[in-house]
TrEMBL record:
<keyword id="KW-0677">Repeat</keyword>
<dbReference type="InterPro" id="IPR026319">
    <property type="entry name" value="ZC2HC1A/B-like"/>
</dbReference>
<protein>
    <submittedName>
        <fullName>Zinc finger C2HC domain-containing protein 1B</fullName>
    </submittedName>
</protein>
<feature type="domain" description="C2HC/C3H-type">
    <location>
        <begin position="18"/>
        <end position="47"/>
    </location>
</feature>
<dbReference type="Pfam" id="PF13913">
    <property type="entry name" value="zf-C2HC_2"/>
</dbReference>
<keyword id="KW-0479">Metal-binding</keyword>
<dbReference type="GO" id="GO:0008270">
    <property type="term" value="F:zinc ion binding"/>
</dbReference>
<keyword id="KW-0862">Zinc</keyword>
<dbReference type="InterPro" id="IPR049899">
    <property type="entry name" value="Znf_C2HC_C3H"/>
</dbReference>
<feature type="domain" description="C2HC/C3H-type">
    <location>
        <begin position="132"/>
        <end position="161"/>
    </location>
</feature>
<keyword id="KW-0863">Zinc-finger</keyword>
Amino acid sequence: MSQIPGKELSGTTARSQDLVPCTTCGRRFAQDVLLRHDPICKKVFNKKRKPFSSLKQRLQGTEITTVRKQPPQKVYLCLPLFPLQKQPEKKSNWRQHHEDFINAIRSAKQVTKALKEGHPLPPPPPPSINPDYIQCPHCSRRFNEAAAERHMKFCEEQAARRAFAAKTPRQ
């Protein structure tokens, strides 16, 4: 029985039929089938698919979709009529990162030594504070500029709700 509905072929005729490769996808078809397959295959393979953005899919239906990063401004290399104002560059804090890394290694070595010798574990090192982060006045957590702006609005509302809930007597 053949795989093509409506047509019955014996085993010898199916094998003896010449199969021709498709120029687009390389699959092999009988000549009459290839005539139907070729325009469809070309249409399918010529379409460009949009890349799937899981971020868009995740944020769809939330308020976060309104927040967009602004594209970087282009700087032209021709001489302008007015001198361009340079934005202040953020100060690199590589030294602070290096010191934090060294302190983390030292404290890890102390923990390993204490475990081997059976002594009590030393206290963990204090967390380093990034000077670029902004502290929330409501919960004292620290965020970068964009996140702090969003968080402070949210945290202010939450603090007001907690204060209101504390004032109202429970029944």
